[in-house]
Amino acid sequence: MKEIIIGFLGCGNVGSGVWKLLKSIEKDIAHRMHLSIRVKKVLVRDVNKARNCDVPHELLTASVDELLDDPEITLVVECMGGEQPATEYMLRALRGGKTVVTANKVALALNWHRLQAAAQERNVGLYYEASVCGAIPVINVLQNSLQANRIGHIMGIINGTTNYILSRMYENGEDYRDVLGDAQRLGLAEPNPASDVEGYDAAYKLSIMASLAFHGRVPVSKVYTEGITKLTAMDISCGKEMGYVLKLLAIAKREENTVQVRVHPTFLPESHPLSSVNGSFNAMYLHGHACQEMMLQGRGAGDLPTASAVVSDILHAATVPEHSYPTFANTAEADPSLVFNDNWVSKYFIRLSAEDRPGVLAKIAGWLAQEDVSIATMLQKGRADDGRVPLIFVTHTAPEKSLRKALESFDTALCTVESVIRVEE
Amino acid sequence: MKEIIIGFLGCGNVGSGVWKLLKSIEKDIAHRMHLSIRVKKVLVRDVNKARNCDVPHELLTASVDELLDDPEITLVVECMGGEQPATEYMLRALRGGKTVVTANKVALALNWHRLQAAAQERNVGLYYEASVCGAIPVINVLQNSLQANRIGHIMGIINGTTNYILSRMYENGEDYRDVLGDAQRLGLAEPNPASDVEGYDAAYKLSIMASLAFHGRVPVSKVYTEGITKLTAMDISCGKEMGYVLKLLAIAKREENTVQVRVHPTFLPESHPLSSVNGSFNAMYLHGHACQEMMLQGRGAGDLPTASAVVSDILHAATVPEHSYPTFANTAEADPSLVFNDNWVSKYFIRLSAEDRPGVLAKIAGWLAQEDVSIATMLQKGRADDGRVPLIFVTHTAPEKSLRKALESFDTALCTVESVIRVEE
């Protein structure tokens, strides 16, 4: 029986899940893999705080040195979250010859190059399946199943909080603020929800996924990020009437020699496979030149689903004879072979509030046409309380900058732009 | 630059796809992985037959010895299909110290133990991602991403031909024979369609998937197999009216200490994630005790999707320092730790043609109740041409054998059982 002695950095939701999962499969892996995994130390801030799991008190320590300087510990599971001190602790662990398994998207997205350089220097492992989309094996599939593909695009629902909020707004016509409040009460959104609802969480994950898909470093600073805080029940219901479902999508596209990476609310046709991914589920939809369409969906968060990914990394790290590293991850900068395009082409859903008088529609169409933006569908709703008419347009594809320029030319006395939402097919 | 010299056994649809894909990514993998893959020989039956790809004529050979005895060739891609001679050729290759990558579910399901023993003896690789569900990385995910899970069930749509047929029957109310004929004309079904429509193809694949999920050999002989040839447009339209979609499902379930493996037509609620997997798409839906629900969907057949899996195996085999093998696959027999249960519990959709007279309904309910089968929903359709009334019942869950016994007790003068279809949630 091979024994691996490990330490945890952190024992919150994820750490407790990993502890529980390791206990629940102890006998199975002893029997099947002749492997025993012993947790020797668990770093926590307060050793006397009540825990979600039955980690014996004597394993807890508030001293990171005690854990990182223990030569018996050869693998460290980092589940503290946040960039620091997690990054520094991981670097110390790697430099000390310990393999690191992390669930930390922020630390990885920001410091991948430093972490990987440290791992390679000591020839130890750096594993991060749990950093993106919980149990869904996004990292393994991109790295090990799709290497023969040129990935044309990825579209992901990679934040469960916002998907829960948008699903409820879509189903029940509820307002953003009301659903957010409920989600906070249910523990599905943080007291400070910015990281989720502003799209930052998705941007970190997309930076990691896009780097793997494009085989080149895509720093998070290159990800255009727009959250869901300005969306209204009105937008969602108008979209619904036109056959669209609203999702916060993380999109990575390669077109000819350029790439786009962006996180923003997006209307999808009801029939799109991502449209039926509801509630707190996550999904990654992609297209490769050989595999064609593929979608992975599942639980993107939660203690056990995240632990599923962490423990699969631990088991992998414990059994492979040699660790491997993606070559691109050795630099902090964007890969020079990737040309980032922020003037992407899209369809747009535009909701306006317009004066109810003859000729307005013609003027709007004219302003759009000046920038070569043409209208695909139009929907006029009953007159609003302020006497203005809500008008909704969906355009044909147009470059983002042309659309923005056209909107700037609108005469605000005649019509106000209430929302602009991108539409993907 | 590392060079791998390979040979193809077969150059039909899959082989041509692998050739094309290798050519299309040649520069990428040279640049990214410092790897060159040279195809040295391609075994075909007739070297003068026109091919779907531009393999140079001088690579073609009709002599298997020429290929298998070539010491320069270190990896063999088997894409002939069928049990023999593919199995014997693979065994010879492995025994000759060559790694084998295969897309052959039949040969693998039937001879996994012989192939693996040969591979282990020479410490060469045996890879088979393409044997199940084309591009969808079912094998990699079960082996490398879900090791920390006790998988409770897998439900798969793993045969594209039958899914295409059932999708069209569902959408358009068409008859089985008509759609099958169309599918044959379109090349989506074989001239002799038995392997697909009788469920055999799915049974081979399920045998492989279930073995990996349960960490124990599940021979194909243990898979209960029922095809789609007896399904009628009437069954599908009645199910549709009750909110069900009909799919040919491959099911592997673990309940307490028993397992079930079965392929049969199954009604699923419209809202089930598998219900919207239409046309020739494949999908695997599963539940693990840690990951919870997960679904993978994509292209389960076709030259390039299958090549996507084959080439990912080639690239993997070419770069790992050591090959690994699932421990269970060394025996031909069912794993002794697996107790197979063929008296599974299910809900049932039962379509009857009944005499239109008072008391018949009560009698039917009584016959079912005698075996503890209770009715959940009932639907009565207008009287048929023969003066009989079509009656549809959906039962609550009941053991298969009780249901069968109850049906045998029906008085055929009063009612005839037209169809019995299992219902999953």
Describe this structure in words.
2 copies of one chain form a homodimer. The first copy, chain A, has helices at 13-33, 64-68, 86-95, 105-122, 138-145, 160-172, 176-185, 194-197, 200-214, 233-241, 303-319, 360-370, 400-408; strands at 2-9, 35-43, 60-61, 75-78, 99-102, 126-127, 151-157, 224-225, 244-255, 258-269, 281-288, 292-299, 339-340, 345-354, 375-380, 389-395, 398-399, 415-423. The first copy, chain A, is an alpha/beta fold and 425 residues long. In chain A, strands 7, 8, 9, 10, 11, 12, 13, 14, 15, 16, 17 and 18 form a 12-stranded mixed beta sheet that branches. Chain A has a 6-stranded parallel beta sheet with strand order 3-2-1-4-5-6, with helices on both faces. In chain A, helix 4 (105-122) links the parallel strand 5 and strand 6. The interface between A and B is large, with 50 and 51 residues.
Helix content of chain A: 25-40%
Residue stretches of chain A low in confidence (pLDDT < 50, at least 5 long) are none
User: Helix/strand/pairing class of chain A, anyone?
Assistant: alpha/beta
Main beta sheet of chain A:
12 strands, mixed
What percentage of amino acids of chain A are in beta strands? Answer: 25-35%
- Average per-residue pLDDT of chain A, rounded, comes to 96
Number of strands of chain A: 18
**Shape descriptor of chain A:** elongated
Number of helices of chain A: 13
**What radius of gyration of chain A results from the CA coordinates?**
24 Å
| Distance between the first and last residues' Cα of chain A | 52 Å
| Greatest interface (CB-CB under 8 A), with counts per chain | A-B, 50 and 51 residues
Quaternary: homodimer
